[in-house]
Amino acid sequence: MTVSSAKLYLIPNLIGDTPIDSVLPASLSTLVSQISYFIVEDLRNSRRFLKKLNKDIVIDSLKFYELNQHTNLEEIYDYLDVCSKGMDIGLISEAGLPCIADPGNVIVRMAHEKGIKVVPIAGPSSIFMALMSSGLNGQNFAFNGYINIEPKLRIRQLKLLENKSLREGQSQIFMDTPYRNNKLFNDLLLNLNPDTYLCIASNISCENEFILTKKIAEWKKINIDLDKKPCIFII
Amino acid sequence: MTVSSAKLYLIPNLIGDTPIDSVLPASLSTLVSQISYFIVEDLRNSRRFLKKLNKDIVIDSLKFYELNQHTNLEEIYDYLDVCSKGMDIGLISEAGLPCIADPGNVIVRMAHEKGIKVVPIAGPSSIFMALMSSGLNGQNFAFNGYINIEPKLRIRQLKLLENKSLREGQSQIFMDTPYRNNKLFNDLLLNLNPDTYLCIASNISCENEFILTKKIAEWKKINIDLDKKPCIFII
Known about the structure:
2 copies of one chain form a homodimer. In chain A, the strands form 2 sheets. Chain A has a 5-stranded parallel sheet, covered by helices on one side. In chain A, strands 6-7-10-8-9 form a 5-stranded mixed sheet, sandwiched between helices. Helix content of chain A is 31%, strand content 20%.
């Protein structure tokens, strides 16, 4: 059996506590039941997710490898060895799509180098679901990850992103650690142009989902508490 | 009944001829059976899609409004009027997620202005499925839409995108009209640095899906025909 017969499946996870059938393809349950090896961002989260996806899966019979910001890159070199024995392997992020806003891409790059087929599965992503719901330009956009926390650099970055959005017509997507969301909201109100459109999307795909796009001038009249809620910001 | 009780649902479509249950959430079939009004990018495509999603839907009982690049923006102003009567409405793009790489965002912007709740549904997107499968940076990326077709501007744009990718570490996603894909592939081989990584993803989520990331120097040794295949390019 050649290396290329095995596949690396990119398996979408839930975002928060959502019913499986409202965000994930029905066939995913069958697919994961045929995989015995998983590379996961968070061990406990992935075990719980797989069990929720398919209650017949025997978690203890599976082999898990961890890949997150604490993983030594030398360690992961052997993770794909099972593929050379013809076994498929799944990559699961802590939330949403693997490799989007997480460091999973290193293992995918390695799969390409080793000639292992990479297969993406559709699923929820707070970034893309926020963008499509924002009413802002979805034909040209950038995701900038976490905003700078150093006060001066932070303000400079926000103004730079606003400038790019206005000048190039490129929607700018960013986020912050959830406990700093209210601070980010205030920084945006204080530093952006009153006419700039801002979309705030929190708890995407969950029961208390909140998505709203307003001009900065209008946001100033609205009281919201974003503390500790997962949020995507778009200007 | 207030305006805000009605919702604008952003309904994902298939990308190509894929089984429903491998890319769309199971609950979508029930959701669309409860909606009687749809704003669609392509009338024929949407009718066929809804019938495939739920064979019990009586297509002739539904009301469709068209929204695409040929639509006069004045026309769409009344599209959301049904929401003021408490009726939900669905937005369906020709392929994949509405408002991503299509002009649907104008109606979403209008929904925010009218106080209508916008609800995104998870589904397939060739852009994001290509990005997650590329092994390239998914923590900072930009989608640039269609590449310029004027020869000089085209080469300049490709070099600019390569420069951004190398200098800022921001993955650059772009596409071309499918019949020009082979030309774009050649332009990339001729003008980019041999060490630059290029991901080509075609026929995403379909039977003949092809996703590969290689350095430009390696791509030069590979024979591929991308003519008329839907493709996403990432550097």
